């Protein structure tokens, strides 16, 4: 049981999505991005909204004063990151991809050596650049990156994917040779992730991984650390989910300028960048503790 359940739920959702794609059941651009926004809010946001609880259990927050400092630093980092993206989108995107590879790699920290999980995480983030490079180019330019720089980043992603593939192949061969693979589900999850990153449309692939695998695994980890149920963990996250939404809504009202889908896409990814800079740092400190 435990985290295996999430692997199975992820595989089932992925299978259904692939089936829908085969049947040509696809959402329009606006509907697709709106669905991504809703999924990120319902399934993705709570995992970041638990950062306050994580900070409390790490004793970074012990009273009202430290709580205010924590929230102030967290919001300042998020705000500064968003300003940084607007000023230097290409640099910010590259940094975001690099740090995200490191952050997502932690999903497999109990089952794989560091190099192998970095390779898997790099593949799942860089896979969309292989077949769907044109889509990724459109997405990156919608995020304010110039097409020259976006094309350059996509080439780098393709090279990183190739290197990560070789590294991961080495890990799989070594694991099979030493009979070190404990569960067939694990192998299925790796193959599914890599295939999904190459084959599915980039946003669908990302939404499925982020909302149905990364976020639930993290919610589960936090529920174990706090020794409370999964439902309780979600309840704990709710005030911060609403606070973030309120903030996002105010910003959206003042800053929205383009077509709805482009604006939503910008707020999802640039907002994610801002929020995840603090989130990734905090979770890194937690996993190291
Ligand atoms: C922008 C963009 C991508 C990268 C997304 C990233 C890097 C998300 C990171 C989220 C994090 C770190 C959440 C933390 O919990 C893809 C999927 C490559 C392709 C489509 C456009
Ligand atoms: Fe995360």
From TrEMBL:
<dbReference type="Pfam" id="PF15461">
    <property type="entry name" value="BCD"/>
</dbReference>
<dbReference type="GO" id="GO:0005886">
    <property type="term" value="C:plasma membrane"/>
</dbReference>
<feature type="binding site">
    <location>
        <position position="47"/>
    </location>
    <ligand>
        <name>Fe cation</name>
    </ligand>
</feature>
<keyword id="KW-1133">Transmembrane helix</keyword>
<feature type="transmembrane region" description="Helical">
    <location>
        <begin position="190"/>
        <end position="210"/>
    </location>
</feature>
<dbReference type="GO" id="GO:0016121">
    <property type="term" value="P:carotene catabolic process"/>
</dbReference>
<feature type="transmembrane region" description="Helical">
    <location>
        <begin position="7"/>
        <end position="25"/>
    </location>
</feature>
<dbReference type="GO" id="GO:0005506">
    <property type="term" value="F:iron ion binding"/>
</dbReference>
<feature type="transmembrane region" description="Helical">
    <location>
        <begin position="82"/>
        <end position="106"/>
    </location>
</feature>
<keyword id="KW-0408">Iron</keyword>
<keyword id="KW-0472">Membrane</keyword>
<keyword id="KW-0479">Metal-binding</keyword>
<feature type="binding site">
    <location>
        <position position="214"/>
    </location>
    <ligand>
        <name>Fe cation</name>
    </ligand>
</feature>
<protein>
    <recommendedName>
        <fullName>Probable beta-carotene 15,15'-dioxygenase</fullName>
        <ecNumber>1.13.11.63</ecNumber>
    </recommendedName>
</protein>
<dbReference type="InterPro" id="IPR022270">
    <property type="entry name" value="Blh_diox"/>
</dbReference>
<keyword id="KW-1003">Cell membrane</keyword>
<feature type="transmembrane region" description="Helical">
    <location>
        <begin position="31"/>
        <end position="50"/>
    </location>
</feature>
<feature type="binding site">
    <location>
        <position position="103"/>
    </location>
    <ligand>
        <name>Fe cation</name>
    </ligand>
</feature>
<comment type="similarity">
    <text>Belongs to the Brp/Blh beta-carotene diooxygenase family.</text>
</comment>
<keyword id="KW-0812">Transmembrane</keyword>
<keyword id="KW-0223">Dioxygenase</keyword>
<dbReference type="GO" id="GO:0003834">
    <property type="term" value="F:beta-carotene 15,15'-dioxygenase activity"/>
</dbReference>
<feature type="transmembrane region" description="Helical">
    <location>
        <begin position="118"/>
        <end position="145"/>
    </location>
</feature>
<feature type="transmembrane region" description="Helical">
    <location>
        <begin position="230"/>
        <end position="252"/>
    </location>
</feature>
<dbReference type="GO" id="GO:0010436">
    <property type="term" value="F:carotenoid dioxygenase activity"/>
</dbReference>
<feature type="transmembrane region" description="Helical">
    <location>
        <begin position="264"/>
        <end position="286"/>
    </location>
</feature>
<keyword id="KW-0560">Oxidoreductase</keyword>
<feature type="transmembrane region" description="Helical">
    <location>
        <begin position="151"/>
        <end position="178"/>
    </location>
</feature>
<feature type="binding site">
    <location>
        <position position="218"/>
    </location>
    <ligand>
        <name>Fe cation</name>
    </ligand>
</feature>
<comment type="function">
    <text>Catalyzes the cleavage of beta-carotene at its central double bond (15,15') to yield two molecules of all-trans-retinal.</text>
</comment>
